[in-house]
């Protein structure tokens, strides 16, 4: 298959298993985000793809050839480091031209390519600046331009935006995605920020404890999380303990959830429902009754915390449909079956 | 905690004792030495207060010029050898685990703290006919019969490199530990082989550190006074040896002091140069 | 990465270079007869026991250890208030004393030695044993000054503020917060000064060379008037002391940090 394939890749550091039996296919032109909490093995996986770490087991295959043993400098990949790793003793132009210099590109072509790349990252005319005189966002762009200088076969980025402030980061996310689409380059980004992943990726790979927990397009990850780890990590969710009644329906807090069934053979399960899907009604009117414990009015949205049979649920609504309650009031709660995802425990 | 200026006498109390000690026992001796360098020498090792330049005028002799240029060249050779040997070593060391690094640091400090007397004695044994490495070469069939490898310039240089090498490594160590490891990784993702990355990235990024280290080792080597005596012939004696010789054995304090002042000036100039180099924007930060 | 055999091989070569003279000296020190043969003929620890049983070696050992213990203590006593003052107060002029504290270590030692020689001779105290203690303390004050400055720099100032909000005055803060945190650096500074003073030759020689024989002076004199294996035994004894002291510093302190490396987390 054309593209990058990881076959049962794993990495041990002494007793610690950083990456555990990861198998993944990335077709050409895809934008992949490796997403997970710190210590989940995502950076180690990216470094193995780059050749900066040797896998303890498994194979890396690129366009049908095994690259597991190919040293980093012969892989023709571009990488942006978390620290950016711009060479402090070289100017912006020299940094970008470094890969071209190594490949023996003539000086004039180097200069032309540098200007092209600076144009691409919206920094025209900055070639002679020292790296130390750039702002954080500009350094970011230089690091990206440098990694793209030789039209790499894979474009790898390790937490590339983590050093930027929130506003700039959001803008760069959009810019990075647009750049990737323009160039059609296969891109793998490591991030712990789920918003970043949702903004940029074609394919989100959620990792936890060294394993892939789910690999799917962003909307699917959000709507149909594979397990409670993914459901909890991506956005916020309500995780409820449910049981099966005699006829196969799902019961929460002693009441059946209309229209929701548990697969046969499963007596207990966990249910994930997003806060914006929880419907609030007048007390006694809905299928469940709870008590409001706290109301968080954020202006744009209103979060209502409701205690139902010992479990606290969160519901998010727009100010227009703001429930007319205060803390301590009783309220009705409905869980629409089509928004519920049943997860194995 | 806010740092406040010291106002009352009791605020100043802690600094009084160290200040007095340093003024009385460092600044004043230094001043006396400078004064003595202008004094008139009398027969029998005494000297009388005066202001003569004859002690400095003696520098103009060809003998002194020879000793001075030999001292400077020797120190330079030691500095270059040490940095060339120590730089790759220190780089490899910083790639090791912390445990290995600490074990090496303990060993390096132990060698560094060794008395020059002991280093001189150890190398004179190693280079001797009876116990030296020439016996090993004979056993390996590289030599006909054991010979003494000292006294000689090679022995002096080896001994001084041995003395200064741990110092060089320890001066380079902090800068290399703080070197961002991703710089070299970045060069590799851009297509540079490890060796090329080392020469393209690591060495230029640490250019200032290397220059500063060269100067510091140079000054360190200028201070060597026993090794040239133990391992070399009189023509290998350095300015430091000459100063000791004049002060103790020739009892010519004014001349010894004048040479010391001169050595201070050279050292200060070089230390100033180091600060200048180090004070420029630190590229490794 | 550079191939592992190049790294390991190169490090091994440097290790060999640094260890070779010591190995030979260690070999020589166990000769059965009074010769400096290597490989040694026979095996004997006599030369080590000689350090403690022979009068001249033993008194040199006591002189050296006494000098090192006292001068290192004095160096710490000079450095501690200075380092504390530099940390506690805004006083740019006090930087002069910091420079004076570092200068003896950066200049060629023969200069400091000659300064002391002219000073003690002028004052008429030349040859008194205590002059060597003061001279060494000034000569090595750099070491505790540097370790203590590093130590103070590592103290989070908000700890002092926290103690103050709980009612501690300056003296009490110093005793209950600063001293416990600074102790490892104090001990390291003392250890560095002690070991270096033990090995120091030229300052000791120029101040008390003709009245008090320290071990390095004794070894040097022995070099001139005939080698004995005892010199080798003393040398090895010194290496072992240094390794043990620095090993303890590394065990109970943060050696890479003391030597200027910022990061101290495990690799």
3D structure, described in words:
The complex is a heterotrimer of chains A (345), B (285) and C (267). Chain A is an alpha+beta fold. Helix content of chain A is 24%, strand content 34%. Chain B has one domain (78-279): MetI-like (MetI-like fold). Chain B has helices at residues 9-36, 54-57, 62-94, 98-112, 116-126, 133-139, 153-178, 181-189, 194-205, 207-222, 227-231, 239-249, 253-279, and strands at residues 4-5, 40-41, 47-48. The model of chain B is unreliable at 281-285 (pLDDT under 50). Chain C is mainly α and 267 residues long. Chain C has helices at residues 4-28, 46-53, 55-88, 95-106, 109-123, 129-139, 142-153, 157-165, 170-199, 202-208, 215-224, 229-252, 255-258; one strand spanning 89-90. At the B-C interface, strand 1, helix 1, helix 3, helix 4 and helix 5 of B face helix 1, helix 3, strand 1, helix 4 and helix 5 of C.
Brief account:
Helix content of chain A is 24%, strand content 34%. Chain A is α+β, with helices and mostly antiparallel strands and 345 residues long. In chain A, a hairpin with a 2-residue loop joins strand 12 and strand 13.
CATH class of the largest domain in chain A: Alpha Beta
- Give a quick account of the main beta sheet of chain A: strands, pairing sense, barrel closure: 6 strands, mixed
* Total domains of chain A: 2
Sheet of most strands of chain B: 2 strands, antiparallel
CA(first)-CA(last) distance of chain B: 27 Å
Strand order of the largest sheet of chain B: 2-3
Q: Mean pLDDT score of chain A, rounded?
A: 90
Question: Quaternary state, please?
Answer: heterotrimer
CATH structural class of chain B: Mainly Alpha
- Could you please say which CATH topology of the largest domain in chain A applies here? Rossmann fold
In the CATH hierarchy, what is the superfamily of chain B?
Answer: MetI-like
CATH architecture of chain B, by name, is: Orthogonal Bundle
Determine the structural class of chain B based on helices, strands and strand pairing.
mainly alpha
């Amino acid at each position: 298959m054309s593209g990058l394939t990881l076959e049962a890749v794993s990495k041990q550091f002494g007793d610690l298993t950083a990456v555990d039996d990861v198998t993944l296919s990335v077709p050409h032109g895809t934008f992949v985000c490796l997403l997970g909490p710190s210590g989940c093995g995502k950076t180690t996986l990216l470094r193995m793809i780059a050749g900066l770490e040797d896998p303890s087991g498994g194979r890396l295959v690129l366009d049908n050839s095994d690259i597991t043993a190919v040293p980093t400098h012969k892989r023709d990949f571009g990488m942006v480091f978390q620290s950016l790793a711009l060479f402090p003793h070289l100017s912006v132009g020299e940094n970008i031209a470094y890969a071209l210099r190594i490949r023996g590109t003539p000086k004039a072509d180097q200069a032309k390519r540098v200007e092209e790349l600076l144009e691409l990252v919206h920094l025209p005319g900055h070639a002679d600046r020292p790296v130390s005189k750039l702002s954080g966002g500009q350094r970011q762009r230089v690091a990206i331009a440098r990694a793209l200088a030789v039209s790499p076969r894979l474009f790898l980025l390790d937490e590339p935006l983590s050093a930027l402030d929130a506003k700039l980061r959001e803008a760069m996310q959009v810019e990075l995605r647009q750049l990737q689409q323009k160039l059609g380059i296969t891109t793998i980004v490591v991030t712990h920020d789920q918003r970043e992943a949702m903004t940029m990726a074609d394919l989100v790979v959620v990792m936890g404890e060294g394993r892939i927990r789910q690999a799917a397009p962003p909307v699917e990850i959000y709507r149909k999380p594979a397990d409670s780890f993914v459901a909890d990590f991506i956005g916020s969710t309500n995780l409820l303990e449910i049981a099966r009644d005699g006829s196969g329906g799902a019961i929460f807090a002693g009441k059946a959830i209309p229209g929701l069934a548990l697969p046969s053979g499963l007596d207990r399960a966990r249910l994930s429902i997003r806060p914006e899907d929880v419907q609030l009604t007048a007390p006694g009117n809905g299928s469940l009754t709870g008590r409001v414990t706290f109301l968080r009015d954020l202006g744009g949205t209103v979060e209502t915390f409701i205690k139902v049979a010992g479990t606290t649920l969160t519901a998010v609504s727009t100010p227009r449909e703001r429930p007319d309650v205060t803390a301590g009031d009783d309220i009705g709660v409905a869980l629409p079956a089509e928004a519920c995802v049943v997860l194995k425990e | 905690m806010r740092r406040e200026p010291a106002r009352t006498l009791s605020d100043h109390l802690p600094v009084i004792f160290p200040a007095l000690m340093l003024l009385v026992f460092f600044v004043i001796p230094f001043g006396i030495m400078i004064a003595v360098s202008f004094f008139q020498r009398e027969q029998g090792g005494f000297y009388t207060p005066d202001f003569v330049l004859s002690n400095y005028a003696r520098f103009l002799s060809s003998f002194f010029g020879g000793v001075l240029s030999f001292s400077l060249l020797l120190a330079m050779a030691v500095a270059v050898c040490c940095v060339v040997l120590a730089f790759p070593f220190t780089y490899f060391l910083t790639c090791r685990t912390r445990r290995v690094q600490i074990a090496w640091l303990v060993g390096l400090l132990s060698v560094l703290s060794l008395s020059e007397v002991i280093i001189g004695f150890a190398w004179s044994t190693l280079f001797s006919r009876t116990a030296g490495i020439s016996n090993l070469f004979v056993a390996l069939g590289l030599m006909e019969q054991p010979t003494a490898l000292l006294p000689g310039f090679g022995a002096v240089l080896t001994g001084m490199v041995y003395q200064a090498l741990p110092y060089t490594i320890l001066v380079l160590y902090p800068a290399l530990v703080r070197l961002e490891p991703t710089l070299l990784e970045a060069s590799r993702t851009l297509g540079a082989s490890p060796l090329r990355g080392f020469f393209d990235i690591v060495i230029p990024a640490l250019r200032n550190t290397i220059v500063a280290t060269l100067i510091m080792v140079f000054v360190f080597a200028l201070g060597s006074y026993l090794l040239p005596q133990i391992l070399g012939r009189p023509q290998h004696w350095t300015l430091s040896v000459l100063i000791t010789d004049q002060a103790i054995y020739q009892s010519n304090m004014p001349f010894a002091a004048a040479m010391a002042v001169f050595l201070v000036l050279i050292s200060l100039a070089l230390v100033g140069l180091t600060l200048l180099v180090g004070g420029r924007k630190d590229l490794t930060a | 990465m550079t191939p592992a055999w190049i790294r390991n091989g190169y490090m091994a070569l440097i290790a060999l270079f640094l260890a070779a003279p010591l190995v030979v000296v260690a070999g020589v020190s166990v000769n059965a007869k009074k010769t400096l043969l290597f490989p040694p003929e026979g095996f004997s620890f006599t030369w080590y026991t000689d350090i403690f049983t022979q009068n001249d070696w033993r008194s040199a050992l006591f002189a050296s250890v006494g000098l090192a213990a006292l001068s290192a203590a004095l160096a710490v006593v000079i450095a501690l208030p200075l380092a504390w003052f530099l940390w506690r107060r805004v006083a740019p002029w006090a930087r002069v004393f910091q420079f004076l504290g570092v200068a003896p270590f950066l200049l060629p030692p023969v200069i400091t030695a000659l300064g002391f020689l002219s000073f003690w001779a002028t004052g008429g105290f030349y040859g008194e044993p205590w002059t060597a203690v003061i001279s060494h303390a000034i000569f090595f004050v750099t070491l505790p000054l540097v370790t203590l400055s590093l130590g103070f720099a590592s103290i989070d100032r908000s700890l002092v503020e926290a103690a103050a909000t709980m009612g501690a005055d300056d003296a009490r803060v110093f005793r209950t917060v600063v001293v416990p945190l600074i102790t490892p650096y104090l001990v390291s500074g003392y250890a560095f000064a002690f070991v270096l003073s033990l090995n120091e030759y030229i300052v000791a020689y120029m101040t008390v060379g003709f009245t008090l024989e320290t071990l390095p002076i004794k070894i040097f004199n022995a070099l001139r008037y005939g080698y004995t294996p005892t010199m080798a035994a003393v040398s090895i004894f010194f290496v072992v002391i240094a390794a043990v002291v620095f090993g303890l510093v590394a065990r109970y302190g943060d050696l890479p940090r003391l030597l200027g490396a910022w990061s101290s987390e495990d690799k």
